[in-house]
Amino acid sequence: MTLVRDASPAAADGPEHVTEPTAYDAILLASFGGPEGQDDVIPFLRNVTRGRGIPDERLEEVAHHYRAFGGVSPINDQNRRLKAALEAELADRGIDLPVLWGNRNWDPYLREALIDAGERGYRSLIAIATSAYSSYSSCRQYREDFAAALDETGLSGTITIDKVRQFFDHPGFVQPFIDGVFSAIAEFEQRFEGIDVTREIEVLFTTHSIPSADAERSGPAARGFGPEGAYAAQHRAVAEVVMAAATGGVDIPWQLVYQSRSGPPTQPWLEPDINDAIAELPARGVKAVVIVPLGFVSDHMEVMWDLDNEALESCEEHGLAGIRVPTPGVDPNYVSGLVDLVLERVNGTPVDDRASLTDLGPWYDVCRPGCCENVRLGFKPADAGLAP
Ligand SMILES: CC1=C(CCC(=O)O)c2cc3nc(cc4[nH]c(cc5[nH]c(cc1n2)c(C)c5CCC(=O)O)c(CCC(=O)O)c4C)C(CCC(=O)O)=C3C
Ligand SMILES: [Fe+2]
Fold first, then answer.
1. Fewest CB atoms within 10 Å of the CB: 55, 216, 244, 257?
2. Which residues does UniProt call coiled coil (predicted)?
3. Interface predicted TM-score (ipTM)
């Protein structure tokens, strides 16, 4: 691995898509990780915020969300179920690829999965990270942690890790949201007879807010995505696809909103916050809100707490009916879509034959140099992309 910061022209010209078939020994399911009991909560939060100088008061604030659920994050069970569902789908399709699971921030850690892979003699892994969009937190940080885990375990020269493309516009990921929005609108139409869906319903697509500086640097700079970067552009493009498919072309108002902001108030993050957006709706005559957790692959703490608790409460406070649409979780479309993404790399599928529902994709197999770098944390080597 090279530690040189500036990309050589040759590296910058590397392949965007890999259309040579690649032999893999296993799939690496890479996730965030979460505490499994009250005693894990603070050590977990220290792992997450390592090197960021997040004060203890803020850690306690976040700890409180976990404490309310017995110190257990829902994410681990979600990943156990996803791993089992992937294994079942692979077996059904006669694909002989074992699935290893490793997290960035809690047991089972990435390094444990890599040691396991090494002991089993695996040399070539294809990673699926449980995160669909482009940004530091949702792509590059996984790739940096791959590099760090290979380094820590002394497996850098032995094991290689590739990563499937960001799958925000893959039909397997998008279809569950289409189904969810369709059902929510149908339910409101039934609950409120004669509701004018073009005025009285609003669809809020919500995702994790990120620092504006990270948003601006998300995706390859050369693509010119503007101040909110590829991160916001990808969400907007997917939201448009979901609305078109779920409404059959009826003009129902929607907007992209953000949630789960952290960091100091002086630091700009993407806005508007979902709760502020909800507060504006009654004045416009809206009666019913469809909350679509477009940025989340499964029912994370952010979904259970910030949406099911706080955002639905905001709806109630403002006299609005609210429905939160399901996350993909282990929806069969999502699970088989993830297997399709692995097969793209196994088979070296030509780009034109790859499924992608927006004009932005199919996204890169091989991340561009410097893509999604974090200016606050500084340069760190990353794997599964072009050097550096
Ligand atoms: C874009 C994004 C996703 C992508 C969606 C995805 O990958 O799915 C994501 C996922 C997750 N984030 C999670 C939890 C946390 N995120 C934190 C902090 C932060 N997240 C950020 C962004 C994102 N985060 C950012 C910019 C920060 C601030 C750090 C900084 O200063 O740069 C903190 C620290 C405390 C705090 O600051 O709130 C915690 C505890 C969990 C686990 C939840 C569970 O247990 O179910 C998951 C899946
Ligand atoms: Fe987060």
1. 55
2. none
3. 0.92
pLDDT at residue 362 greater than cutoff 50: yes
Q: Which atom number of ligand 1 is nearest to the Cα of residue 300?
A: 46
pTM value surpassing 0.90: yes
What is the rounded CA–CA span in Å between residue 105 and residue 206? Answer: 24
Positive or negative: CA dihedral 277, 280, 282, 286? negative
Structural class in CATH, domain 171-324: alpha beta
User: Domain ranges in the chain?
Assistant: 9-167+331-353, 171-324
pLDDT tens-place string over residues 127-136:
999 999 999 9
For residue 366, report the phi and psi dihedrals to the nearest 5 degrees: -115, 110
Do 9-167+331-353 and 171-324 show the same overall fold? Answer: yes
The answer to whether 122 is annotated as binding is no
| CATH fold for the domain made of 9-167+331-353 | Rossmann fold (3.40.50)
Whether 47 is in the pocket of ligand 1, judged by its Cβ within 6 Å, is no
Strand stretches in 199-268, DSSP E = 201-208, 254-259
For ligand 1, what atom is nearest to the CA of residue 105?
Answer: 42
